[in-house]
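input
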Amino acid sequence: QVQLVESGGGLVQPGGSLRLSCVGSGFTFSSAAMRWFRQAPGKVHELVGVISRYGSTNYVDSVKDRFTISRDNARNTVYLQMNNLKPEDTAVYYCAPDIPFNWGQGTQVTVSS
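output
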């Protein structure tokens, strides 16, 4: 059974940085593309970016040049480095593989002064 555990969220001021982590289990992590989503209050899940099994990445325009996804297959972990955070980045952040899965608990990111 696919399990996803996100961590690393918190309260940060505009312009600050956070690094989120997501540990995956119950599937062959190294073979899966991994995605980061976020969900703001009252909105649907929004794809933030993806990292392929080979390490190539793509991002939604609103986070390009600010967010970076990386992965450590030895640790079954995918990371989301977020720099120059803005209030509109406030959301619960989730990771997800490119196979059938259930959402993890997510990690809350709040950007506010």
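quick obs: Residues 29 and 36 are 15 Å apart (CA to CA).
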